């Protein structure tokens, strides 16, 4: 009996140390998660003192709501466009700042190029609003170069708003890819490049046949992570366009906020939030599988 | 022995509870007013109140205007709502439906109030569902702010008084040079996305139109269509600043202050920002150009009491203090607005600048209108207006179609 108790104490001690962390994590994650799922099963909550249980009716409504599908489509365009933008600009800049130049210059460029990452969404949105204003710098430059005759309303024209948002998102998000890719570049053995050079490979050949294959797992991992973050991105979109003009840039996260805090339809908002959760969870599983495979 | 112990216990309990009994009631006041008045006026006001009412302490909770509405709703839902609430008239019906507000009829009928209800600005007092729900701390009409320098440069001596003059002068100012616009129209979708209630409604009221028939949406009427047509014509003529669909109220104000816009329709209270931020601007404010009607959109900062407040009497004592003519005059002067208690008008008039005197003239002679307070979903309603006006201005629909679309979507919202 004493031996059993001693064994239990020895084996249980690590779990006791884990307990506070588990309790906090549990409270912070599972309670809100449970509440959101629960809210989505009622006719309305928060503003309704006696909510009625409606089962999956909110989900059925959502499936037939064109606004939801339109926001879903915009979310896919925004997410895929942003991730592609982050990858192309991030990888390109990582290659540039990895070049064999004076160390001081290299440090300077690396520091400068990482700046967009440290600005808050509010600062980024406000700056780009000023730049993209009809009387802003970008329109001035375009007119000065003779590329447009009239100022363009980049954030107010439905045909341009999503492109403008992608530009803002790309500027804000490339540093993460750049930093990840840069750290990956340091791990590629120099011998591989030397061997390629002996075989007569130029810059592009080395990039396609050495760098990219070597960094494929890194690229796949950060792209998935970026996909998960961007898919549920809210502040940058809300602060830059508010989902407009009309609903041209309405994504699922802004739709959730609009339903909750503009329309006071908290249960509908919870339903959209659950749909975002399911899709994000699928991406997260994919990411975890990829990481497990790398290990 | 038992008796002695019982007595000791009772004495101990009484001693322990004594501080509680003597403790001041603490009330919380959630508002955005102090965020727009950064010189500490509201802290001083609260200190003055506490000195006069040692049994009540007031916790001032200040948030930006755009955050207050959602805070009131969510705080109320989880039972941590404030006792006294800073309110905006358009929120009234929404909050009633949720049960956030305490009816004030019984409080207003008290004999020991520091003010007469008949002296209060009338618009926020109007009964909805048979009760009064808020009282006015201050009031200001929507006006048209004018850059007289640009008006003169465009060849005119006086600001426009009619729609026709407005269109003519705004067009002429836009033609002056690149980067200068006749009038700004903030129809951005960005939160709070309320451009139409800032600019379209004041023009509509000055044309004699309305958007509601009691609590029923009534948007597709000829006056609304005429006002939309007026906006579209000005836009097509280049009189409106480019980029209306991405122009926020904040940008509109900044552009006017910077001297790049001839006219701006917004609350009169903005005059203090304009004169303090750009004293060089040749500035004046006038009544929103009319077509013969002298109705204006009235706005103000209102106060209510939370239905769930455990300290309603203490909350009313504070509201009563704020509405007394002396305190109300101070609050109005601090915001460069008109007092909610009209008995304080003379005190406010003393030493008032020209812009405030002009607002007083509008407020005393013209008809005040505020319709959004009857809308069951005000924020969603003005968001819909914004979207349909955007589509009209870019030529995707006619004014008639825009009016019909808003009406249909409003009916949908009303359920």
UniProtKB/TrEMBL annotation, chain A:
One of its GO terms (cellular component) is plasma membrane. Keywords: Cell membrane, Membrane, Sugar transport, Transmembrane, Transmembrane helix, Transport. CDD domains: TM_PBP2 (cd06261). The lineage of its organism: Bacteria, Pseudomonadati, Pseudomonadota, Alphaproteobacteria, Rhodobacterales. It comes from the Bacteria. It is found in: Cell membrane. GO terms for biological process: transmembrane transport. InterPro entries: ABC_transporter_permease (IPR051393), MetI-like (IPR000515), MetI-like_sf (IPR035906). Coiled coil: none annotated. This is Multiple sugar transport system permease protein. It comes from Marinovum algicola. It is a multi-pass membrane protein. Belongs to the binding-protein-dependent transport system permease family. The chain crosses the membrane at residues 12-34, 71-96, 108-131, 160-182, 218-238, 266-288. Residues 72-287 form the ABC transmembrane type-1 domain.
From TrEMBL, chain B:
InterPro entries: Bact_solute-bd_prot1 (IPR050490), SBP (IPR006059). Residues 1-24 form the signal peptide. It is found in: Periplasm. Its main location: periplasm. Gene3D superfamilies: Periplasmic binding protein-like II (3.40.190.10). GO terms for cellular component: periplasmic space. It holds the Pfam family SBP_bac_1. CDD domains: PBP2_TMBP_like. Keywords: Signal, Sugar transport, Transport. The keyword Signal applies. The keyword Signal applies. Belongs to the bacterial solute-binding protein 1 family. This is Multiple sugar transport system substrate-binding protein. It comes from Marinovum algicola.
